[in-house]
Design goal:
Radius of gyration of chain A: 18 Å
Order of helices and strands of chain A: HHHHHHHHHH
Helix content of chain A: over 70%
CATH topology of chain A: Tetracycline Repressor, domain 2
CATH architecture of chain A: Orthogonal Bundle
Number of strands of chain A: 0
Mean pLDDT of chain A: 85
Oligomer: homodimer
Shape of chain A: globular
Number of helices of chain A: 10
Strand content of chain A: under 5%
Largest sheet of chain A: none
Low-confidence stretches of chain A: none
CATH class of chain A: Mainly Alpha
Structural class of chain A: mainly alpha
CATH superfamily of chain A: Tetracycline Repressor, domain 2
Chain lengths: 209, 209
DNA sequence: ATACATTTAAAACGCTTGTTTGAATTTTTA
DNA sequence: TAAAAATTCAAACAAGCGTTTTAAATGTAT
């Protein structure tokens, strides 16, 4: 497999997470990757398809691990919401073992996908989303039998929202916190603060809809 | 007061919320506003200062109402977190009385500010943020005396994250929900689902940090 | 009516963007 | 080793961007 392709994907992944898809230029991506500009169109065809390839790779590094752990969880008895959250956070941290800050990068990419979604990524998600998160939905359903699928859907995305926002805005928030009360929280620490919030978002006793 | 200025701000506000600051072009903004392209640089000087003006106007429409209601709340006894959330949601809905979907637009703008923050907006926020949200912080502090300011800071932004994400991704999420389980949730309805999540995010019993 | 501020119009500026091209180079295959 | 295929490279392309400039056409006060 071409190593140029990989270098481009890795550079693009970092760039997309930090600046968003539109704001990232192929010129900077290829420069950081140490390859020629034209290599993008040669290997991927277009910027759109590069974006899709990056998302594809990112999800394929995350989803299988998550799916496996969740399916182990389904077999257990007395599963708590906290367990699901823990599995999810574990799946994120497992990404960091391959490359530093990869978990943050991944969450940021998910956030960018929702925020900048222009159609082609939406279509891609609709096709791959169910497969990747089916186990998650099943678990939630079995954990909260009183809720219908739609309610679970909204809770999941509420939790996802906190996660995405805190990751995407991590730099700005840390800077704010430092200026405001001499806080010394680093990026990675945010992942440790998350589980509590995620669990409470998922178990929220909202009685509407 | 010049009506051209207003037309530009309103058009830009909508555009910024939907596409983000960078992805919005002055050419489309002025075209939709029905004014000349050069009018932007004549009235605002630059795109950066237009962005700042839009954010300024948006916050000034929201903050005073929120501040007033929060300060009324401080005087009361036995204030619950749910009360704070209610006041916040009310402040959002009050925006809709002036123009349709204005609450969504506002939340989206806040989200864009965090996600695309390039420095000048960050500086602007650091100056105006404390003033606008001081009452909110004071209330939270008095409501949860066991928590320090930093913990409150993170809870607030966790809640804000859900709100921002659900608003920014509203279209994509509604589309997903419709495809998945024939849901018929409209954008405005999302505001009704929020309070429960916000409350639980704020009262989360996370024991880290 | 004179002076000033506002608005429109059209054109061009320099710059960055994604994409294409054609030749040079490397790698693979026979 | 020679032919073929795959890859890299520098250069140029057209299009879009924010911005500036020039001019003429409106208003709006003094």
């Amino acid at each position: 497999m071409s190593q140029t392709k990989d270098k481009i994907i890795l550079s693009a992944q970092k760039q997309f997470a930090e600046l968003g898809f539109e704001a990232s230029s192929l010129r900077l991506i290829t420069k950081n990757a140490g390859v020629n500009l034209a290599a993008v169109n040669y290997h991927f065809g277009s910027k759109k398809m590069l974006i899709q390839s990056v998302m594809d790779r990112s999800i394929r590094q995350f989803a299988p691990y998550l799916k496996e752990k969740l399916e182990q969880l389904i077999l257990k008895e007395n599963v708590k919401t906290a367990d699901i959250v823990e599995v999810f956070i574990d799946a994120l941290k497992q990404l960091d073992e391959q490359s530093d800050e990869q978990s943050m990068v991944f969450i940021k990419l998910i956030g960018r996908s929702y925020a900048e979604s222009q159609g082609h990524l939406k279509r891609y998600f609709v096709e791959n989303y169910p497969e990747a998160l089916d186990a998650l939905l099943r678990l939630m359903r079995q954990l909260m039998p009183s809720l219908d699928d739609e309610a679970i859907f909204w809770r999941l995305h509420c939790a996802l929202g906190s996660l995405v926002f805190l990751s995407t805005s991590a730099d700005a928030l840390i800077e704010m916190a430092e200026a405001e009360f001499n806080s010394h929280v680093n990026k990675q620490h945010i992942l440790d603060v998350m589980p509590g919030f995620l669990e409470s978002a998922l178990t929220a006793n909202n009685n509407e809809r």
